[in-house]
Write a structure and sequence with these properties.
By secondary structure, the chain is mostly beta strands. It is 2% helix and 46% strand. It has one helix and eleven strands. Strands 3, 4, 6, 9 and 11 form a five-stranded antiparallel β-sheet that branches. It has a four-stranded antiparallel β-sheet with strand order 5-10-7-8, with no helix packed on it. It is elongated, with a radius of gyration of 25 Å. The N and C termini lie far apart (53 Å).
């Protein structure tokens, strides 16, 4: 005990609170913030989450017929590891009435509709879409583009599509 300015002080160590830290490659949410592993901001620079930190492009040229009032799907199987930061999808679809089309990107249990009935009677759909809501997903795995013809009398072809993914 010491006395400072007439006040007694106890010279003892104050207890410290150990805050749990995220273990970036352990498979759980150790710090309890609702984000696990590479999806947790605490892990952005961890080697297990780096994934190259670049841009990867994957392309498919199925030349697949889109049946009248039917659908076609095409999958790109990605073996590259990493964690998704941003996704862009470019499509090249020949169709005589693009307003009939619904185009979706599917990754695991997540489906993102890229376009649904837009474009009216204009021909063809050659466009690049920025896809949101996939940040933190694993890059590796199947990425599927699904093209649906939602109305009768016009058919088309899924000529090609590409997936441009920025990893972190």
């Amino acid at each position: 005990v010491s006395v400072v300015f007439g006040v007694a002080q106890v010279d003892a160590e104050l207890p410290t609170l150990d805050v749990p830290r995220e273990v970036c490659d352990a498979g759980g949410d150790e710090d309890g913030d609702g984000q696990a592993n590479c999806a947790d901001a605490d892990c952005l620079m961890h080697p297990a989450c780096a994934g190259g930190g670049g841009v990867e492009t994957f392309t498919s040229t199925p030349a697949a017929a889109i049946p009248d009032k039917g659908q076609v799907s095409n999958t790109i199987d990605v073996t590259t590891t990493g964690t998704v930061a941003d996704v862009k999808v470019a499509v090249d679809i020949t169709h005589t009435y693009r307003g009939d089309l619904k185009v979706s990107l599917i990754k695991g249990a997540v489906t993102k509709v890229l376009v649904n009935g837009a474009g009216g009677s204009a021909d063809d759909l050659k466009q690049t879409f920025t896809v949101t809501g996939l940040d933190g997903e694993a890059l590796a795995g199947g990425w599927t583009l699904k093209v649906e013809d939602t109305a009768a009398q016009d058919v088309g072809t899924l000529n090609s599509w590409s997936l441009e993914v920025t990893t972190r």
